Amino acid sequence: MEIVAQSYSGSFQSKIEIISLSSDVCPLCSVEEDTVEHLFHSCTVVSEVWKWFFKWCKLSMEQHTSLDHLISSLINHDTSDKGKKFMETTVGCVPWFVWKARNNVVFNNTRRRW
Predict the structure, then answer these.
(1) Mean pLDDT lowest for which of 35-49, 71-85, 92-106?
(2) pTM for this model (two decimals)
(3) What gap in Å lies between CA 64 and CA 1, rounded to an integer?
(4) Alpha helix (H) ranges present in 1-114?
(5) Among residues 75, 83, 90, 69, which one has the least CA distance to residue 1?
(6) pLDDT band at residue 81, thresholds of 50, 70 and 90?
(7) Rounded distance, CA 2 to CA 8, Å?
(8) Residue 101: which residues within 8 A CB-CB, separation 6 or more?
(9) How far is it, in rounded angstroms, from Cα 103 to Cα 25?
(10) Residues whose CB is less than 8 angstroms from the CB of residue 102 and which lie 6 or more positions away in sequence, other chains included
């Protein structure tokens, strides 16, 4: 859950903040700047992952204005204790998956595989 907490609070470091590499363009979409908000929310590639996640959870994908809004809406969707625990646990899987895929592209020079 640390990756979710860091991305949610804005303390997560992107490539630009960690190391100066040859490009500050998102390694997943190759279009926008590699920022935390872009990587975990507005990247067109990552949006497809979120769409899959919403479909898997049998939820409708509504427009979210930010990563905070997206995560809050998921966690607060089900008010039961069991439902909240499920969402708190599973919502952390998407940022972790995205971060691992991004790092494989950046540091291992691999192509994303989804």
Answers:
(1) 71-85
(2) 0.71
(3) 21
(4) 2-9, 15-18, 36-37, 44-56, 67-75, 81-90, 93-108
(5) 90
(6) confident
(7) 10
(8) 28, 112, 113, 114
(9) 13
(10) 27, 28, 39
